[in-house]
Automatic annotation (TrEMBL):
One Pfam short name: Pterin_4a
Gene3D superfamilies (UniProt xref): Transcriptional coactivator/pterin dehydratase (3.30.1360.20)
Feature: compositional bias, Low complexity: 64-77
Protein's name according to its UniProt entry: 4a-hydroxytetrahydrobiopterin dehydratase
Lineage, uppermost ranks: Eukaryota, Fungi, Dikarya, Ascomycota, Pezizomycotina
Catalysis performed (reactions): (4aS,6R)-4a-hydroxy-L-erythro-5,6,7,8-tetrahydrobiopterin = (6R)-L-erythro-6,7-dihydrobiopterin + H2O
């Protein structure tokens, strides 16, 4: 099932306001659409048939293993300006204690964060605004949504690692989430990352050129 909705006036004002550089499509038919598929039997079978995504968490530690983990270091996409990205990550990463709420994942190749809003409408407007930024940057997230909560993971598939697009889009998400009235909740543990992992498995590789059949 395809789900699409017209951007509300509030969303339009926020998206086209100062701070975020974007351009709205001219007509409703051109407006950004996000399609979320889920629940169909084929999708479930495909996901069950495969093992783990690259971002899946390791199995839980057994009691005999030490609990302390060395801090994950960012693994940058080749060709990145590493010094600039290191600096840009400081206000984003929770580990730096500067108020950031993103965490490194996938052996440092990805940035992850969960966002919560009061209603589904606000959540959807936020996702629509993010999707417009993705269009501008030609870069997509690995994300999942249930009701008022959205999990977002930024990683670059080719060349693999964290790139400036990931870091920029993470900062843009923070800004958009504020504009759309994000609920500031500290402990946002949920199962949405595994939902995104399943979508990664079924989506295939975005960087492999499509062959015509
Ligand atoms: C061909 C096209 O430019 C590439 O597939 C782009 C599109 N969006 C992308 N998004 C992400 N997250 N990683 C990529 O490597 C990537 N590559």
């Amino acid at each position: 099932m395809n789900l699409s909705r017209t951007i509300t006036p509030t969303a339009r004002r926020i998206i086209s306001g100062p701070g975020i550089l974007t351009r709205l499509p001219a007509s409703p038919s051109q407006q950004a659409r996000i399609t979320i598929s889920g629940g169909n039997a084929l999708y479930r079978r495909r996901c069950a048939a495969r093992s783990q995504s690259t971002m899946a968490s390791p199995p839980p530690l057994s009691p005999s293993q030490p609990q302390a983990q060395p801090a994950l270091q960012p693994a940058f996409s080749s060709g990145s300006d590493q010094a600039a990205l290191e600096a840009a990550l400081v206000p984003l990463l929770s580990a730096h204690g500067a108020g950031g709420r993103w965490t490194l994942a996938g052996e440092g190749h990805a940035l992850e964060r969960t966002f919560k809003f009061k209603t589904f409408a606000k959540t959807w407007d936020f996702m629509t605004a993010v999707s417009l930024q993705c269009k501008i940057k030609n870069h997509h997230p690995e994300w999942s949504n249930v009701f008022n909560t959205t999990f977002i993971r930024w990683t670059t598939h080719s060349p693999k690692g964290l790139s400036s697009k990931d870091v920029d889009l993470a900062a843009i998400c923070d800004s958009l989430a504020r504009d759309f009235g994000e609920i500031e909740q500290q402990d946002l543990t949920c199962r949405l990352p595994s939902l995104a992992d399943k979508a990664v498995i079924s989506s295939g590789d975005c960087c492999v050129p499509k062959t015509k059949k």
